[in-house]
Design brief:
Layout (H helix, E strand, L loop, with lengths): L4 E4 L3 H33 L6 H19 L4 H17 L6 H12 L6 E4 L2 E2 L4 H11 L5 H13 L3 H14 L6 H11 L8 H17 L7 H11 L5 H15 L1
Parallel strand pairs: 1-2
Antiparallel strand pairs: 2-3
Helix pairs in contact: 1-2, 2-3, 2-4, 3-5, 4-5, 5-7, 6-7, 6-8, 7-9, 8-10, 9-11, 10-11
Length: 253
């Protein structure tokens, strides 16, 4: 058994974990309420919050988010992603960027790189959640986010998750040493395109297209050209094959 596979013989440990998570969230909420009361008192007294009071508020909120991310049920995890999406839309990550990036990386790999089982049954396979986490990682725009998305692209088995990872990598456009182009090309090379997914193929093409347009003088990576040609010859819808030909034409310019 690999280290990444945590095998739980029955539901007892999972239930205990849920109880521990719930207690952690409850305790953090109590501390957050106390911190809020302190902040309200400071405001009422006409003074600014101390550095300690500001840090306490931020720290407790992040503790709650981490506890929710580590919960065993999908709804609680998804609530964290919705919260992060709201912060990203407002541009309000601030000093929490690193913590939020770590949470997104964890959730993007939950159920693929990290597997939890009860007996023989996997209990943490949440592909929709991983897809959302991969989408949000594409908005972080850091080297760590790029590397996490490459890992998702190459390790996840769900086409919709891999497609989102590819699209997000294209959106990031961080391909200085062709590491993203290499990962995309490798993903195509090992795929059986007679039984593959149309949305995945289209997302791969969009990623190659964005990398090509963002690179000064275009993408100079032969394996990328071969990958696009392979998609153009695959058993895909005409829309996908036509898009592949357009991307190839774009690469020639």
């Amino acid at each position: 058994m690999e280290d990444r596979d945590l095998v739980i013989p029955d539901g007892a440990l999972a239930r205990e974990y849920d109880m521990t998570t719930a207690r952690t969230i409850a305790a953090a909420l109590l501390l957050l309420a106390a911190a809020s009361l302190g902040a309200q008192s400071a405001t009422a007294a006409g003074r600014e919050l101390t550095i300690e009071e500001q840090y306490l508020q931020k720290s407790i909120a992040m503790q709650i988010m981490r506890a929710q991310a580590f919960a065993s049920d999908e709804d609680t995890k998804t609530a964290v992603l919705d919260d992060i999406a709201g912060k990203l839309s407002k541009g309000s990550l601030g000093g929490d960027r690193d913590d939020i990036e770590n949470i997104l990386e964890y959730l993007a790999m939950e159920g693929s790189s990290r597997v939890v089982r009860e007996g023989l049954r996997q209990v943490n396979n949440f592909p929709m959640m991983r897809k959302q986490a991969a989408e949000l990682l594409g908005k972080i725009r850091t080297e760590q986010a790029k590397n996490a998305l490459i890992a998702v692209l190459l390790n996840d088995e769900e086409y919709m998750v891999k497609a989102q990872a590819a699209y997000s990598l294209g959106e990031l456009g961080m391909n200085e040493k062709n590491e993203v182009a290499e990962a995309l090309a490798f993903a195509v090379s090992r795929e059986d395109l007679t039984r593959s997914d149309n949305n995945w193929a289209y997302a791969m093409l969009l990623a190659f297209e964005k990398l090509n347009r963002n690179a000064p003088g275009g993408l100079k990576y032969p394996e990328a050209f071969r990958a696009v040609i392979k998609i153009s010859q695959g058993s895909f819808l005409a829309t996908v094959r036509q898009k592949a030909l357009l991307v190839l034409e774009d690469m020639k310019k």
